[in-house]
Specification:
2 helices, alpha+beta, about 80 residues
Length: about 80
């Protein structure tokens, strides 16, 4: 990524996922970031990149909230709702 984006480099070796158009879910792992020029003129690629970037920003936001909060998850209650 270039200077216009903030990236938590410590979080790059993480797994993540995004919903895909057919209703499934793609699981991915970032293992390396390459600084290569973006190809202009491919709207589908731009949309995918925007979705991935938005998902990464959301995950970072949720992770920061969890780090600041005192959260206790009651697994029994979650299992009842499912």
């Amino acid at each position: 990524m270039r200077g216009d984006a903030a990236v938590n480099l410590a979080a790059l070796e993480r797994m993540g996922g995004v919903p895909i158009a057919d209703g499934g879910y793609s699981i991915l792992r970032i293992s390396k970031v390459l600084d290569e020029p973006v190809k202009e003129g491919d709207p589908q690629l731009a949309a995918q990149a925007a979705q991935l970037y938005g998902g990464a920003q959301y995950e970072a936001f949720v992770e920061s909230l969890r780090a600041q909060a005192d959260i206790e998850i009651n697994a029994a209650t979650l299992e009842k709702k499912q």
